[in-house]
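Researcher: Next entry in the queue.
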Amino acid sequence: MDDTETAAIPSEHQGKTEDLDVRLARAILDRKRELLAEGISADESARLADEYGESWLKRAASLGLPALRSDLSDRVSGLEETNTEYLTTLSRHWASALDQYRLAAECCRLVGIRLWNHADEENLGLERLDLQSALAGTWARSIRTGVEVDVLLRAGLPRGAAARARTMHELAVTAFVISEYGVLDDHVGLGSRYVAYGAVKVWRDAKEYQKHALQLGTKPLTDDEMARYRSEYDEAVSTYPRLDRPNGWAAQLPGYGRGSFEELERMAGLDHFRPYYSWFSHEVHSNVKGDRLNMVTSPDGRAYHTGPRLDGLADPAHAALRALHQVVAAWGSILDLNAMDVVYLQAGRLLVDEAADALAAAERGLA
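Model: Structure for this entry, 367 residues:
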């Protein structure tokens, strides 16, 4: 093993303490001198020497990886022990409130199952069936996303839970718009428009994937697949005018202009939750406000969260539950419910309110 190849090996293994940057600079300079001595131009020698430096670093990283992996394994073991202790503290404080979250979420799941059974028993035409399909799909996603929120909260990751609660608000808005307008005579085909809008999204995604497949090193879609997606798209947009616009499934509704989500919020009557939506959006997008929200003041100055925390769980948990119940309530509003269905829906609302009180109390208990 020559001097160059020992560059990334820790000093306790190689017996040398020379700074890696100095060793890299010397290796590049020596290579450049060799190339100049061979009669290669100065510019070409500099370019080739830089390429040599890159390969030098790759070799060094490869040689140093076993020692680094061992060090990282020790660090991970230490982090696991620390996290276990931290999460034990979190669970001790938040267990009761988070259990209330699960009770409310489970009630919403059971309500949805009851609604699905009702829909399955009805003799539905295609348009009504599509309306049920749209709302059932929205409910199923909201249930699954609610589970993700639960997992993130119990892991001490409320900001991640906030990002998923944002999605649940979007699902609630969609469910409200579909349920409110889809039963009106003027918009009886809204459920079918919503289902057909899937062909628009599939075609757009297929084109985007096909454009970058080779660069990604993945297998492009076949000509037959692309032709099928295009055919489904053409059929959908020819059947439903303006379907290819942003949120085109709602393009025929009063209040739709630019097709923005903010417009859909107003149409759903849920725009008063926009402050939460905007706040949670900072946990989804890369922007400086998200960075500031991740900043804390410490005795030593500024610091950033890089892992679990004990506080901040109440708001995303409550927002997620609220949206979850809104979805099932929207679905139930288009059905002929029996008394027990109404009881389950009302019980779900009460459980959401109880969970919100428990979560708020747990948050105050940290102050």
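Model: Residues 42-121 form the longest helix (80 residues).
Researcher: Noted, moving on.
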